[in-house]
Amino acid sequence: MKRILILGATGSLGRHVLEQAVTAGHQVSVLVRNPSKMPAETRSLVTVHQADLGQIAAGDLASIVRGHDALINCAGMVTEGQVFVDLVERIVEGVESLPAVERPVCWFLGGAAALDIGQTGRKGVALPKVRDTYWPHGKNYERICASPLDWRMLCPGPMVEQAALGLARMRLSTEQLPVRIAGFASALPAPLLLLVFASKVPEMIVPYADAATLMLAHLEPAGPLSRHRVGLALPVGMRGKKDTWAARPAAAA
Fold first, then answer.
1. What secondary structure letter does DSSP report for 98?
2. CATH number of the domain at 3-252, please?
């Protein structure tokens, strides 16, 4: 059993993390702006801290974080731009202010664009069009990487509300996209590499439930995913759709 603090527990991913953590018997706390968005039966099983994560002082956040084994941040959206970057900065500052022995394992949420594209030495956030929206993932990764925290950064593609496939079936990677990238991609100019990257996104459309399971499965200090970006993809031969998602053989797409 772990003492877990979930930030953004009422969001799409946060709800799955919360449900799975409670079901697994962890001692769970949440920091939410509006506790009424949580199911009443769940509120009675967890410790609720009501605060606006975008406004809370780093010191006050540190006081809430203290005493937990793990912090899982599901709050913020990349489309919020600098607001999202500032939010992650506040979280990192708050945890950094604690003595090293009191800092929890920390999970942060990024996106597939924060991963290296195979052996090309380039990330999705460096590509035209992608960087226009997803640049905060790159900034957040730089900030987290520069910190002394025991962090992991989950970098999936789009996530969808569907039944879990199970981690045993999923493809998992560290640092690079969890899909095959041809060797010739290293020689491609950015506009063509963008097409390669975009063609791989459907393989990385994953259920929220599997993303939550992955985070909760790796809460041990200095574990195998410690200080790594982590990619998650569908089984080989399956692709997903963001709207009305359904997995199907890639050859049929």
1. S
2. 3.40.50.720
